[in-house]
Description:
Layout: E1 8-12, H1 16-28, E2 39-44, H2 46-55, E3 63-67, H3 83-89, E4 91-95, E5 98-104, E6 109-114, E7 117-122, E8 128-134, E9 137-151, H4 159-162, E10 174-184, E11 191-194, E12 199-204, E13 211-215, E14 218-220, E15 223-230, E16 236-240, H5 246-254
Amino acid sequence: xxxxxxxxxxxxxxxxxxxxxxxxxxxxxxxxxxxxxxxxxxxxxxxxxxxxxxxxxxxxxxxxxxxxxxxxxxxxxxxxxxxxxxxxxxxxxxxxxxxxxxxxxxxxxxxxxxxxxxxxxxxxxxxxxxxxxxxxxxxxxxxxxxxxxxxxxxxxxxxxxxxxxxxxxxxxxxxxxxxxxxxxxxxxxxxxxxxxxxxxxxxxxxxxxxxxxxxxxxxxxxxxxxxxxxxxxxxxxxxxxxxxxxxxxxxxxxxxx
Length: 257
């Protein structure tokens, strides 16, 4: 009788806790290479989940994370038993990454993909000056700040939350635009944008106030213009236990003391 279970690939962060869990699960369940898997089981924290999602971004293989790291907002609880039953009942959360296109002072053009956020940060002691365009319309002539970031719902609980940006529920089809230590306008807290918005950042005085642009782990320095839009050609799937679904975690985080 053929095996009706999905083919699983187990991957783990390079920490003792994650490696021990990886050994246990690979002994207990059939394991295939990640490129042949129907589902990838990631063991670690949110940083390793982000790394795993980047690894499957072109295939769109669903990822079920189990917490064996320091921060596990995107992870389920770890348990070695009953994995197939958990996967059968898991809830699916879909998201599209952001595609960043950046132009440097040298004229060179670069591109990168972000699952969490695209962030612009000052490189030197002086604050950055940034003009913000939304769908071709200038919405802010000049933001003076340490930087600014554009976050997906998945990334809204990471750097965006630390910068006092809003948590965005999955499925809301919104992006969070959040300043980082704004000096002028001092009281501007950012904006929620429709996920289809095309955002452009123009760096003012780039020689005096150089800025770097980062899409998750990819940094591009000395940028003069950065354009960001959701990449609808790529779709990522995260799997959550019903009792620990992402929407419930978003609500709990917003009412945390």
